[in-house]
Write a structure and sequence with these properties.
The complex is a heterodimer. Chain A is an alpha/beta fold. Chain A has 17 helices and eleven strands. The termini of chain A are far apart. The mean pLDDT of chain A is about 95. Chain B has two domains: about 60 residues; about 80 residues, Glutaredoxin. In chain B, helix 1 runs antiparallel to helix 2. The chains are: A alpha/beta, B alpha+beta.
């Protein structure tokens, strides 16, 4: 009967209102959790094998386990709702349509790790989502689900919606902490890791919106039931944001591990008539691109990692045969050059250099050595930056020019032939 | 300096600061508020935020210049943000941008002579199933077609 109970994507109308959410069983899981010991809650989530849904895919329960609850410093919980990875829009949906699920997840998570203050870092452009969250917080507070002595226990929690102000890099967890502290979003050197020195140098857990939204479902059904879906070590369902060349772009909740082709062709309706699939970016713009012949891949963290890509934020961008990969490369290099924070020279200089090279390529002023030059500069960024932005740029660009090498080579040859006739 | 700002603005800034465990953490929400009120974050806004939050003015300047939604000079009354990232680009964002530029007579980063609109291109608004998408102020528009621009812009002019 478990499958009949609401998942992440409950489409009940007005679910964002507390009464409706409660009529769907809302806040029962939190009440149950607060009647357990924090260690028992943590063990339940750890045993559920829930992986982070923001990008890195780290096991959530293991991350919580790094926190020392008994230290002198307060513990903070930060929710990453920056959702800046191009092609991703599922957290916007959760916050707008199911904000109490997000809050219930925050409540249980905060209880498990001993945090009394929670921050939801919502990207600056998400006005409607932030307003829904603010309203849900007020409702939950009035009903005693947030604030002092929740459910008559000694546990108290205050949740603040903290708005970003534009900057992709702020989705990187340590940049996000700097941004909550009122600073530039410059990623920090790790270690120390946020679990020991995070927000205000206190122990901090940072979880994605969708990750914490799974927590009430785990407490409601139990870890064993949660593990029935998904793949070993990577359980439950995931929200995939599907965009680009499909008939039905949108958000789809599916068990972890379904084949990529089922998502694209069965759920998202396949490509428009007359179009064929050229490539898929499976986890947001930063996930290395996959070829049409790689569509049998199961959508889970480890399978995509083994295929040299990543599940990332679950932003699936479908590309058809009418799209030029030279243009696509230009969009990538522009994006990373614009979003590099500038702290690390390889990323700051490398991404701009790459974009200038690609702009020249796009203008038709090509050189035979251009592809090798792009590969050389991208490789020089890889592994030499503080945060994953540099690696993301390098790996996404390298995959694109490697897998579509012939397209780039013929583009260069065509330009050269045209240039010679003038 | 905090002179030159209405008392309610100062109260609001202090109220935001009081919500945070440390008042310097209130810098981003305070700057958002001041930009909404003043239209831009000039010297007066920077100094006021620094004074009330107990920060060095340079710390405020760093934040103002880092985040793309903050601006030091006033923009038009309405901001149009056109997404040009991959999903929107594949759905024809460049074409709609060109048409929008022609209609407004301005390029990205520019303001119409009457001060009504400022046009920006942006990297992903998180609305990719609605590609091509844009925002006017805080309003989202998805699957926009060129023949809809007059109707959309008409709501703001």
């Amino acid at each position: 009967m478990t499958s009949k109970r609401p998942g992440l994507m409950d489409l009940t109308e007005h679910l964002f209102e507390l009464d409706i959410y409660r009529s769907r069983g809302g806040y029962h899981a939190a009440q149950k959790a607060l009647g357990m010991s924090p260690d028992a809650v943590l063990a339940e989530v750890r045993d559920a094998h829930l992986r982070g849904r923001g990008g890195a895919g780290f096991p959530a329960g293991v991350k919580w386990g790094f926190i020392s609850r008994d230290g002198e410093k307060p513990v903070y919980l930060c929710i990453n709702a920056d959702e800046g990875e191009p092609g991703t829009f599922k957290d916007r949906w959760l916050m707008t349509h199911n904000p109490h699920l997000v809050l219930e997840g925050i409540l249980i998570t905060a209880y498990a790790v001993g945090a009394r203050d929670g921050f939801i870092y919502v990207r600056g452009e998400y006005e409607a989502a932030a307003q829904r969250l603010e309203r849900a917080i007020d409702e939950a507070q009035a009903a005693g689900f947030l604030g002092e002595e929740i459910f008559g226990t000694g546990f108290s929690l205050k949740v603040i919606v903290h708005r970003g102000a534009g900057g992709y890099v702020c989705g990187e967890e340590t940049a996000l902490l700097e941004s909550i502290e009122g600073k530039r979003g410059d990623p920090r050197l790790k270690p120390p890791f946020p679990a020991s020195a995070g927000l205000f140098r206190c122990p901090t857990v940072i979880n994605n919106v969708e990750t914490v939204s799974n927590v009430p479902l785990i407490l409601r059904d139990g870890a064993e039931a949660f593990r029935k879906l998904g793949r070993p070590g990577d359980r439950g369902t995931r929200l995939f944001s599907v965009s680009g060349a499909v008939m039905k772009p949108g958000i789809y909740e599916v068990p972890v591990g379904i084949p990529l082709k089922d998502l694209i062709f069965n759920l998202a309706g396949g490509l428009p008539p007359g179009r064929t699939l050229k490539a898929v970016i499976p986890g947001g713009l930063s996930a290395p691109i996959l070829l049409a012949e790689e569509l049998d891949l199961p959508l889970d963290c480890d399978s995509l990692c083994r295929a040299g890509s990543m599940i990332g934020s679950g932003g699936v961008i479908v590309i058809n045969d009418g799209t030029s990969m030279v243009d696509t490369l230009g969009i990538m290099t522009r994006f990373y050059a614009h979003e590099s924070c500038g702290q690390c020279a390889p990323c700051r200089i490398g991404t701009s250099w790459l974009h200038k090279t690609v702009l020249r390529l796009l203008s038709g002023e090509v050189d035979r050595g251009d592809l090798a030059e792009i590969a050389r500069v991208a490789s020089a960024i890889k592994g030499r930056t503080l945060c994953p932005l540099g690696d993301a740029a390098a790996l996404a660009i390298l995959a694109l020019i490697t897998k579509f090498r012939t397209e780039f080579e013929s583009y260069i040859e065509e330009c050269q032939a045209r240039n010679r006739t003038w | 300096m905090s002179q030159g700002f209405a008392p309610w603005v100062l109260d609001e800034v202090r109220a935001i600061a009081a919500r945070y465990p440390r008042r310097e953490a209130a810098l981003l929400p305070v700057l958002r508020l001041l930009q909404r009120i003043s239209g831009a974050l000039g010297r007066a806004e920077e100094e006021m935020a620094a004074e009330l939050l107990g920060l060095e003015p340079v710390r405020v300047r760093e934040a103002v210049t880092f985040y793309s939604l903050f601006r030091q000079k006033p923009a038009g009354r309405h901001l149009i943000r056109v997404c040009v990232n991959l999903s929107c680009s594949m759905a024809g964002a460049e074409r709609s941008l060109t048409s929008l530029q022609a209609k407004l007579g301005i390029g990205p980063g520019e303001t119409t002579p009457d001060g009504t609109f400022t046009l920006f291109t942006v990297e992903c608004l998180g609305n990719c199933d609605q590609a091509p998408c844009l925002m006017v102020d805080d309003d989202d528009y998805g699957r926009v077609r060129e023949d809809e621009f007059d109707r959309i812009l008409g709501r703001y002019s």
